[in-house]
Model the fold of this input.
Amino acid sequence: MIIPKNPTVSDEQWDEVIRIVSDFGCSIQVIEGAVRNIYAILGDERHELLINRIEGLEYIDRVDTIQSPHKLLDIRSELRNHKTVFGGVELGKKLLMIAGPCTIDPKNPNRFYETAEALKEAGAQALRGGVWKPRTNPYSYQGDDKALDILMEGSQRTGLPVNTEVMDAGQLRMALDAGVQMLQIGTRNALNYSLLQQVGEAISGRDTVVLLKRGRHIGPIDEFISAAEYIVNFGNPNVMLCPRGTLPSLEGYRSHPDESITPLLKDKTWAPVIVDPSHSVGKSVYIEACSMAAIAYGADGLCVEANIDPPKGLGDDPKQAITPEAFKSLMKKCEAIWDLRS
Ligand code: PEP
Ligand code: MN
Done:
């Protein structure tokens, strides 16, 4: 929809607009209004260059698009009936709870195994564990390939599928070769389009699921869904959107909690929403409240940092991991909210 600055466009301007849209295989229909005319683009109006060329004309105010920029993930797309299943849970039918430490300590594999067993006992259907870590401080612990074996051993021992973050093509390959069932793209790489494409390509034809965190730079919701579209575009629709808090943070919290975008995501896309309360509020005492809020907002599940001994954990665990007992009680409350929803 083309909105001109003046109530109507001149004949020369009209000719110019028609020339541009026909370059993109589209045509124009005038919609006469009492105060001003608007001009509907007939055809696929999603070409970025088409929009840029029209918006670049000095007599045009703006172009409003009606079609979604993310056609596969759009709520109206044919994929809307796609069922994502993970950890034995069909998303949307039952709460999906993913839990585990921020970072797997390669020097203490037993802590991961014990955490994994305790979380399974508490009701988790999937485990998380950081093998490679995106750290703001280049001198902090960056992860270790050895942790991948520990992650997979934890999966074997519990029978639960696992999530881990990959940041480059090498880690992607190693994780897939090891049998990681859910790849995480973290907030820092949420807009790394070449990585998103590599992930989409690598998982096409497989059952692998991707947990795409929302970029913490507060991008528009369409930007978040479009990032996921990069992955789905290669043929595997198993992508889950993960609000995890944005920046700048709300004083006292690690980030600005954003579980409240869940209903807005659900209006636009069929993709499941898994909220990460841990990186959102960033303190173990607030995790339960954030988790319950996320479920009340309509989230399909949660990804929570948990550790049998948080103070001894690596990465974020000392400040934001909860114990398996706390996880069990949180899960019960979240399930009660889930039941209230229906
Ligand atoms: C994490 O899951 O430990 C992590 C670093 O996530 P994020 O990308 O959301 O910060
Ligand atoms: Mn973490």
User: Anything to note?
Assistant: The CA atoms of residues 133 and 142 lie 5 Å apart. The chain has two domains: 2-63, 78-341. Residues 78-341 form a domain with the TIM Barrel fold (CATH 3.20.20.70).
